[in-house]
Amino acid sequence: xxxxxxxxxxxxxxxxxxxxxxxxxxxxxxxxxxxxxxxxxxxxxxxxxxxxxxxxxxxxxxxxxxxxxxxxxxxxxxxxxxxxxxxxxxxxxxxxxxxxxxxxxxxxxxxxxxxxxxxxxxxxxxxxxxxxxxxxxxxxxxxxxxxxxxxxxxxxxxxxxxxxxxxxxxxxxxxxxxxxxxxxxxxxxxxxxxxxxxxxxxxxxxxxxxxxxxxxxxxxxxxxxxxxxxxxxxxxxxxxxxxxxxxxxxxxxxxxxxxxxxxxxxxxxxxxxxxxxxxxxxxxxxxxxxxxxxxxxxxxxxxx
Length: 304
Prior knowledge:
Layout: H1 3-11, H2 17-34, H3 39-63, H4 65-69, H5 91-116, H6 121-136, H7 142-145, H8 148-169, H9 180-195, H10 199-204, H11 210-214, H12 216-232, H13 243-261, H14 272-303
Helix pairs in contact: 2-3, 2-8, 2-14, 3-5, 3-8, 5-6, 6-8, 8-9, 9-12, 9-14, 12-13, 12-14, 13-14
InterPro entries: UbiA_prenyltransferase (IPR000537), UbiA_sf (IPR044878), UBIAD1 (IPR026046)
Pathway: Quinol/quinone metabolism; menaquinone biosynthesis
Protein name: 1,4-dihydroxy-2-naphthoate octaprenyltransferase
């Protein structure tokens, strides 16, 4: 594999939706609340998201290099990119790349703050990076000590939608603050889901992930329950919808949850195909719900 191919592998493009979708959701909510939208700002915000994605995956690969080395069941959704374990990139190269991505992210945020008077943007960006640092690095290193899913819930489900909203609106007025609760749950569950295939490796590495703390079955059950709760309270994200629209944003995303429920008793990490299918269905339900919220917000804005 060429060096470029190794960096593409390290970038884990499939995980980009975890960052891109919440940022877009925040921007759509800003448009629905204020009626203004800038495609240039949209591009800048998504650039911030891409840099954030690269910072996170490079830093996590470096921080988890020892645990990933003893993980017997890496997958497309977990276990790291494997570039260190396969000898394609050195830990030092990934460490430097993570710092470069973080620096670029802060520079873009500062430029946007200066040009558009978005003075809270660098604060939000640095705060989000701090959550990631607490997740993977000392002294907290909560992905190992336990409850790292709280930090991912805050980062993906709260900080990113706020960044998207604030960048487009230039203010926080009109942001559905209570609507960040179901977004937080999606970020929380996302961490829980991706820990499921890594259960054997996480136990071996003494990582106290959700699945290790509660067991595989209960982790899957709790994931479905939290997904259902988040979807059921989607009306908080887009308040003021008629009853039929509320029904729509609930019923449609619940379908993957119901399909995943059929795998509840058999999707252990040892049953690799079903475990990955369970993870994909759960992640799909969350993304489908956010897409439904965006569509509902746009329709409400267009029809008044």
